[in-house]
Every structure is written in structure tokens, then in C-alpha cells.
User: Fold these one by one.
Assistant:
Number 1:
Amino acid sequence: MLDQETERANEGDAPSPDAIPEAEGTSAPPKAYDESIVEELGAVIDDAKLYATAELAFQKTRAKLLGKNIGIALSAVIVAIILLHISIIALAVGLVMALEPLVTIWGAIAIVVGVMLLLVGLLGYITYSRGTLIGEMFASDDASSNEDAPE
């Protein structure tokens, strides 16, 4: 009898198969991530793609405008140089014509050509001296320190 009472007491303590909650046996595994984070990451990736596409389109447009403006500026410089050349020729001819009554035609040509050659020489000297200065500025420090060192 004692055994029967113990069994009845134990039966009350032991859960029945129907008493097991459904969450333990049939539930889905726990989520390793939050769906809102995944959605946010997807939105960030989409925004990054959109930004990259827009930036690429902007840079292409900028390059087209730059190329067009460089072409226009280069054309303007070329025309300006041509007009400057023509005006210098006209100045030289005008000076020869103005000096011809004072000196002979050959004297006027000699004076105009001589002054122009002096100006070319002066500009050449200025270019050479500035070029030498620029070359010294970009010379390596080792070369300049070796020249100053006593032997």
C-alpha cells in the first residue's frame, strides 16, 4: 500500500505529456538578428548605390563642361596670340613708314628691326634667368649641400 501511495504522489509530481508547453518542443529557433537592422542596412546599401550613381553622373557632367570650357579658352588664347602677332607686324610697318621721312627706308627698317631684336634679347635673358632660378628651387638638397661642402 505504501508503494501505491508513493506512486500516486509521484504521479502528481511528474508532469504529464500533455502538460509540456508547446513553446519548448515546436517553437522556431531564436532569431540571430533583428529584422529592422537588416532593413536599415539594406536602405543604407541602396542609398550608397544611389549616391555613387549620382556622383558618377555629376563628375561626368563636370568633365564635359570642363572640356568644353577648356576648348573655348584655348581657342580664345590662340586667336589672341594671332591678333597680337598681327598688331606687332602692323606696328613695325607703321614705325618704318613713320621713320622713313627722317632717315632713309633702309635706316628706318634697321632701327625698327634693331629695337625688336633688342627686346627679343632682353626677353630671352629674363626667361633664362627665371628658368635658372626655378631650376635651383627644385634642385635636390643633396646636390646643393655637396657643392657647399669643403673638399
Note: The two ends are 122 Å apart (CA to CA).
Number 2:
Amino acid sequence: MSTVTSYERSGQIKKYLLIIIILLLLLIGLLVLFYLFTKPPSLVRPAKPKGYYHMFSIYGFGSDRLNKPTDVAIGNDGKIYVADTFNHRIVVFNNSGRFFKKFGKKGKN
């Protein structure tokens, strides 16, 4: 029968405490990295080029957001036509940026 001396037991406790402290430091480091990589971007005001001004932004309509819009055109009637590439359609907005209509659908090659 072997007995563990108090010196050996205190050595084991110190070893386990050291392991726990190292693991906690690693966890804190991972939490800091998670925070840095997932925090929302800070707002930066863009430089305003002379002769241009921002009127409005178009993101889509309702829950039906634009998905990879690639081109924008303004028709003779003042309507804004947006090529919504990944949704395979053209979305039309009036001259104040409000949704007007959409047309097109995914076809076969």
C-alpha cells in the first residue's frame, strides 16, 4: 500500500492550478479574438467629392433584399432600374428610391 505524502499532493495541486490558469488565459485570448473579429465596423464618413451628393440608398424592398446588384440605370421616365444578379431579376424603383416593381426570373441555360 502506497501513501501519498503531503509534499507530493501539494505538487499535484500546483500542477493542476497551473493547467487551469493556462486554460483560462487561452479562453480569455480566444474571447478577445472573437470580439475583435465579430464586432460591427465603425462608421467612417466618406470623403465628399465635389459636384456629387448622396440622395438615398437602395437595399431592396421589405424582406426581399437585393442580392449582388451589379448595374444601375435611370430610364427616361426617371425610374431607377437595378440588375439584381443573384435573384435573376430587374428591380424598378421610382425617382425617390421607393420600390415600384420587379420582373424577370431564373431561367434555364
Note: The chain has one helix and six strands.
Number 3:
Amino acid sequence: MLYLILRTRLRFGPYFRAWMRSLDSRNRWPDTPVLVVCGATATGKTAVAIALAERIGGEIVNADSMQVYCGMDIGTAKPTPMERRNTVFHLLDIAPPDQQVSVADWKRGAEEALGAIAARNRIPIVCGGTGLYLRALLDDWTLAATPASPQVRIELMGWVTHSGAPWLHEKLKEVDSVTADRLHPNDAIRIVRAMEVFLTSGVPISRFQEEDRARRQPRAAIRFGLTLPRPLLNARIDARVDKMLDNGLVVEVETLLQQGYSGELGPMKSLGYKELVEYLHSKRSYVSAVEEIKANTRRFAKRQQTWFRADLSIQWLDVSELNSAEVAAQIFNAMAPEGYRAS
């Protein structure tokens, strides 16, 4: 019933305008192959990208869907002010938590950043663990052409607030089981986006993604993935969560709530934030929240690994016994045939 009501709000104007913008963006790709550092959370991607940027004269384009939001620093493992002092980063802190950054928004911003970096004769390095962002950019998906309706999105978020993300996830199963199967029931922002696309167009977002894959146009990029054995990765995840808490993650979440950002916002339902919002609202104990953050992060890392393993163009590096400088050196040596050199 929900989607029958909302489909009456169908508008093709946003669809057409987004499609026109997507045509505009397809020429913004550097002549030099773009470097990519990807992998699951807690594999040390940012430190490696910084070491690599320092070695080759590069600038880093963020490909983490949560690091785009202002004020969400500790819980997203955003590069610190010290790390940003000597390395230029792009697409960090580009929106407040109550302003959604879509895949299409990020893709346009990334293309513009890559073009600007190359124009300065610097080396572009795309770094992050959001697989959908990377695939949309590197395979030149036309996700900008998927329909959007802010009004439908607002109504859907209202349903999430009223009935919960798992309830809307069940509704998504009825119209797009492919997308529902790959999304966590609490992943409100992506569930809402998938429902928004269906209610606005009558077509599941998975269908748009299938068409993108069929029209796949891989762009010039050298892709490196960082990997760790599962037991070591899980231990790193647990240690990183503990470090985030020691560094003030609870205060960060509390500050965001005090600034008026609702715990029902998509970014506030991301890893670490959702659980601590529940703790701060007395819905669970601190110990329970911490255990849940660690467990959810381990599950998230497993999904990331599955996603990235499907990309056969990624060159995998086991970083178990290596520090960030050593990993950067391995990447640099692997790049030599492409004509890269230290700056």
C-alpha cells in the first residue's frame, strides 16, 4: 500500500536532468591511470595511501561513504588533522549528516577532483572501502540516471522513524529481493534509496545496476586491494573500536545529537553511531553497545571482502607482516611498468 500511494508522485524531470548531468561527466578522466587502494575496514588503507602519496606526489580522493559527512570523524576513522597536514585529501567533510550524499553526487565530485589533480600534474589516488562508490566510478556506471525524489525520500525516512529500517527492508524484499538480499536490515540509507528508486520509476534499483554492469566501461585504473587473514582482521577491528572509544567516540555521537542531528538520519545509523545512539538514549547498556559495534563491523568487513573479491582486476596484497611504508613500496614497484616515478 505504501508504494502504491507514493508512486502517484512519479516525476520524470529529475530523471532527465540527472541523465543530462551524467553525459556531462563522462569526459572528466585523467590520461594517467588512476591508482586505487581498497579493501575491508581496518586493513590500513588510509595509512598506505598517505605513504604512497608522499612517495609519488599524489593526492587522495576519499571513497568512504561516511567520511563525506562533517562531524563524523572518530567513528569513520577519518584522516586526522595531522595526517592531512602534508597530504591533500578530497571529498572529506562535504556535507552535514542531514544532507544525503548519493552515489551519483559522490561520483560527480570524484570525477571533478580527479581531473583537477591530473591538471596539476599530481597523481590521483582513490582510497576507500565503499565498493559501490568505487564500482560506479571505475566502471563508469550511469547511476546518475537513476531517478530521485526528495519528497519520496522524506516520506520513506518517516516510515523508518515510525516503523524501523527492518520493516522497510521487508517491504523492499517484496519489490527488489536482489537488493534486499545484499543489504543489512538496519542499513536505512541504502534501503530508503532502493525504495525511492522503485517508487519513483517502478523499476528496481538492481535492474539499473544490471544494465550498468552489462554496459561496463572500465576506466584506466590500477587497483590494489589490501587483505588480512580473517582472525587477524577481526582482532584489528576489535582493537580499532576500542581505540575509537578511547579517543572520544561517545562524546562525538553525543555532540552530534546535541547539535540537532536525529539518530534516525541515515549517517547516524552507520556503524558505531547507531549503537551508541541507542546507548545514549538508554536503549542498551554501554557494554552491549560496544559488543554490537564490534560484531557489526566484523560482519560488514566480511561483506566488503565478498564484494571486492568479485573484481578480478584488483591486485591483492597481504599486509599481515607489512607496515604502511612497506605496502606503499610494494605498490610503487608494481606500478613501475606503467611509467610512474617518485616525485
Note: The longest helix spans residues 286-309.
